[in-house]
Amino acid sequence: MQRRHSRSQSGRRSEKGSSSNVEPWHVENNAHCNGGLRNAICSLGPRVKRKVWVGTLGTQTDSFGQKLRRDIDRRMSKEHESLPVWIPDDEFEKCYDEFCHQVLWPCLHYAIPDAPKTAQFYQSSAFKEYHAVNQRFADVIAANYKEGDVIFVNDYHLMLLPLLLRQHPKLPHNVPIGFFMHVAFPSSEIFKCLSMRQELLKGVLGADLVGFQTANFARHFRQTVSRILSYEALPKGIQVPDGPVPGPRPGSSTDGRFVDVGVYPMGIDVNQLQERKKDPEVAEWIRVLQERYAGMKMVVGRDKLDGIQGVRQKIQAFEMFLEKNPEWQGKAVLFQVALQTTEANEVGGGVSDLVAHINSRFSTLTYQPIVFLHTQDLTFSQYLALLTIADAFLVTSLREGMALRAHEFVECQEGRHRPLVLSEFTGSYSYSGFRSCIAINPWDARGTAAAIQQALTMSDDEALSRWEDLHNHVITQTAQAFATGFLSRCVRAHLEHIQPDVEDVSVLDAHRVLPRYKHSSKRMIFIDLEGTLYNRDVSRDALLENRFEPPEEALQVLDKLVGDRRNEVWLMSGLPRSMLQIIADRIPRLGIIAENGCFIKTLGSSQGSGEWLNMVANFNLTWKSSALEILNYFTERTPGAVVEEREASLVWRFWTDPTKPVDSPDRQWARWQAAEAQNHIFDRSVYSYAC
Hints:
6-stranded mixed beta sheet, 691 residues, Rossmann fold, 6-stranded parallel beta sheet
């Protein structure tokens, strides 16, 4: 689905159908589509044998008859590898203009309105239409799916689609699905303001792989799922506890499924951009602009006209730059290229009046400080010419996924090497290669004004050094690298998910085993203690008393097995060796694995018991103190919770009352606390140990 101007404002050409020699419709490229994604997929060329784009048309469609729709379906499929999704105009408007742009877009970019002034955000009824549009996409995809296809779902407009596809009756239950969030993803404190938060998260988790532009966005998503859904969030993904598992046996398991979460930064197709720069029209416009603005410094920006892209903050900073540096009045020009968005968001951005105010304040007969252009007023060749001769490129986004226009600027500056002024709140800035820009806080107008001054007065040597770092990153983080990495990982994740679970061990067939056991001359036997020979009392009192009383029946079984000289018997346990020493003293010849492999007691002999080996002697266990501090904090706030500190590990029993039902409020609170504690430990570990 494409972000673009409202379909209610999309005009039709009056000359269509006016002559019998003119086809009733034709195709035009949509200037507001996701060009980055299209370029990335198309850059793979023949490596993608079959690709089909599924999306909506950029115009109203209610008046289209069935014959015209069939003709459009046929030609779009044959000539453009595309499948239109037919959506009633009113349904589309409520989904796209209201829910996507007035609810999801602000939320994902940290722009939560003040309640109760904006009830539409908190009480939007358009989620019904959002669900309906996602369902229409699912139906079209299901009707055209072929075995071997990988389904790539892009961006926040279709957050429900992965689960709808996973549950669709016409699709295989194990169809490979990847979801990529092209924009930012906020902190859980922001996302949980949405009333439909659970539905959106569960929808995304229908995918095999969920991708984000930066590690921060991926971490926010994992934490949000953990805190809102109380699912187990691991550094590599999410363990979804409910629902069928994709696999070779439909409906064979309800234990849940694992969803990979990864980071796949979008890039540009550098080779294609280099070819576009060679267009003679670009060279001609470079000449024209250099003549027209001779002796002036040119600052260029390109953004959507909404509050998120920070255009208002940019223009205010440029005004302050001219105020603080009057010597630049008449010598510095800001070229602001504006991408269209919905009318409501454009009005909310409040840019037009501010541009008029500054131009009236600083303009002279031969000078206008701000040149404000809409994309429909500017060809791509003209835009490339602007990037090529710019003295600085200014990005002031208040929050953004990946600022690919900054990447384009870097490559267009191959001969001049002028600096990039970049917001700290863009995804691009989170990568080390882009730290050679001039970083700004867009909320700080004085700081941004000073950055403009720094950019325009920077020496050639410093500018070249910074540009080389930026260039090396851009040619590495390319569109091809993004598409290849995401699709390859999606396929691998899918294959991993459909493999039989190694924990899914079949029931022991005694009739097959016993004859072989009886006639074998040497046997190695591994026996699990907890849950097999021994059901440990995990009540709070028993845990606090550190009580360990292995049943006599279990000890007799072990003693009998060890007594057979043909047997080598190993007891596996997660308990510490201080507890298991009780068993070791009773049955000296028994081999024991303690703390899940951290310590091993070798097999004893007739002369005595074996010795304990420390398998983690060379490991760094300093993490325990900080993890124990976190767990103690949550233990105080979780009724009935207990921390078991062992030699090389920690166990937190966040729920010790088996008498209460699974859906009890206390148990749900304990699960939420467990998810919070896990998030804190992961964050601390990554920060301190880079693990």
